[in-house]
Design a protein that fits this description.
The chain is of the alpha/beta class and about 300 residues long. It is built from ten helices and eight strands. The protein has helices at about 40-50, 75-85, 95-105, 120-130, 155-165, 170-185, 195-210, 210-225, 250-260, 280-300; strands at about 5, 10-15, 25-30, 50-55, 115-120, 135-140, 240-245, 265-270. Helix 9 links the parallel strand 7 and strand 8. Helix 1 (about 40-50) runs parallel beside helix 10, helix 2 (about 75-85) runs parallel beside helix 8 and helix 6 crosses helix 7. The longest helix is centred in the last third of the chain and has 20 residues, at about 280-300. The model is unreliable at about 300-304 (pLDDT under 50).
Amino acid sequence: MPHAALPNGVSLAYEIHGDPSDPIIFVILGITDNITDWPSGLYEPVVSNGYCVVRHELRDSGLSTRFDAHGPADLSAAREHLDAGQRPPAPYTAQDIAEDARLLLEHLGISSACVVGYSFGAFVAQALALAAPEMVSALVCLQGSTYDPALPPRSPDVEEALLGATRDYATAEEKIQAIVNLRMATNGSLHALDSGEARQSAETSVARMYCPDGTGRIILSRMASEPIYDKTGDIRCPALILHGDEDPIFSIEHGEDMAARMPNARLCILKGAGHNHPLSLQPVIADHLVEFVCALGKQVSEGR
C-alpha cells in the first residue's frame, strides 16, 4: 500500500480505486477506523459509475503515522478541562487532521474533490471545507455531526463500547471482541450487523491494525478542537447529509443540524440505520452517493 510523506512530517497510508483522471471521491474515515472499514461495497459501485475513490487512514490509525511518543490520552482529565470551560491540551486537533487531508490531496495532484466524511470524519471534512473551500467541490456527511454541545449526547452503552476500543488487551481475541462490541452497540433495527458479520468485520480491521492509544488520541483531538458549528454556514458547496434515524452515537438531530446550517445541503434519512455499515446498508449508501455526484456532474455539463 502506498504512503504519502507530507511536508508536516505525517505519513498517510492511502489507496486509489478507479481511474485518477475521473472525478475524485475523497473519503475521510472516523475514529477507530482502518482503511478496511470503508469496504468494497461502498466504493466499487461508485467506481463502476465513472468515479475514482481515494480512501486513506487518519494519523494515529491503521498504517499511518503514530503519535505514540505522546502516550495514551487522559480522557477523564480532558473532560474536566471541558467542564471548566477550557479546551484540553492535546498533541493535535481535528483541524490538524483536516490539514493532513488537504496536504494529501495536494500530494496526489488533486485540485478539487467531492469529500465524503464518515462519523468523526464528517467533522474533519467540514473543517477541510472551511479551511480550503476551493478543494471541496461537494461534501457528503455520513452519520456525522457539527459537535454542537447543545445536541443530544450519545447513549451510555455506546460510550462504554467506544471507550472499550481505547483499551489495550493481551490477546487478539480480546481486541476483536472490543471492536465487535462497538459494531453491535451501533446497530439500527432494519440495517443491523448480526454477530457473524460483526465478527468478520472486526477480524479484518484488527488484522490490519489495532491502535487503542491512537484511538484515544483522536478522541482527545476532537475534544481539544476549536468549535466549528457556528461557522458551517460558510460551507457553500453542494452538500448531502446522510443520516440514520436510529443512530445511537449521533441522533437524527445531528443530521438535521448539519443540513439546517449549510445553505446548499440536503438531508437524506437512512431509515432503520444506526451508525455502522452492515451489508444491507452499503448499497443504499452507495446509491445515494452515486445519485448525488451524478446529479452534480449533470449540472456542470449543463452549465448550471
